What does this fold into?
Amino acid sequence: MSLQIGSLTVQMGLALAPMAGITNYPFRLLAKEQGCSLLYSEMISARGLLHNGSRNSSLLYFTDQERPIGFQLFGSDPLIMARAAVKLESLGVDFIDLNLGCPTRKITRNGEGGALMREPGRCSEIFEAVVKAVSCPVTVKLRKGWSEQSVNVVEIAARAEEAGIRAVTVHGRTVEQGYSGRADWDIIRQVKEELTIVVIGNGDVDSPQSAEAMFSDCGCDGVMIGRAARGNPWIFKEILSWLKEGRLPEPPSIDQIIAMSLKHFSLLSELKGEAAAAREMRRHTSWYIRGLPGAAAARQQLIRASNFKETETILHNLYRS
Ligand SMILES: Cc1cc2nc3c(=O)[nH]c(=O)nc-3n(C[C@H](O)[C@H](O)[C@H](O)COP(=O)(O)O)c2cc1C
It folds into this structure.
């Protein structure tokens, strides 16, 4: 079940979705250790990267253990996107992904992210400029269209293939939809039927069974998982086991959940320093303990935790007798 993205061979089509503020190095590594085979950075501004990006920034940090890893750019100017892609390639990333899906107003009002779905001609210009500028594979992440009245992902995906893009990910929602409603998997199937390059489906995969359903309903080469992986890197191992052996592994124990969240904290501290890690980990830790007894009360305490020790103590007091 391996897939070929240009020159890159990926073991299995199980991807962690790019998520701003979430998929930095520590979380990507944990997902990888649990069987995720394709990692993406969170989105990076092409313009910002050219002005002040350095290998020292936590946004750009990655390790060999994460390979194959793609870094995702957003922007709207073909030339700037191409120059930013060259810079990323020089940092040693394996492939470059282009963001054509972000629905945040701050981004779309500049004609970036999802707003590009309204400009097929500009999409082609960006695809061509970036593909020409780098020798690593270039991929793109698309939405279904800008709105239900302008569903055009099949056309944009065909333009991508034509320009030499090596894989497309389709999130089956319109930009206007944001994250509401259900993702339309039929549109993913339509893209797969039109294209010969790799197609990765995305939207609402939250269990091994739904991953299997997306593969079979859409015929896609890979599935990408976003929100359901937060606080749950084990989802990749579960999907692998389900697809390969038709059975589910034991769910993680409370001790394993605590150990994973503290490992996440430690890695994040190494990357950003303990104070910044503590702030970022409040959300992550809440996701890790979701569904456990006393999780609501624990969350109240965790939002005040300002270092590793405090977080560890809260978790141990609650969950270790
Ligand atoms: C907090 C958050 C941040 C996101 N940031 C990005 C991003 O930087 N780039 C991107 O292409 N998509 C981003 N997305 C969209 C996800 O990659 C994915 O397409 C979406 O969540 C649907 O997949 P899911 O149903 O598995 O969550 C983000 C989503 C969330 C929830």
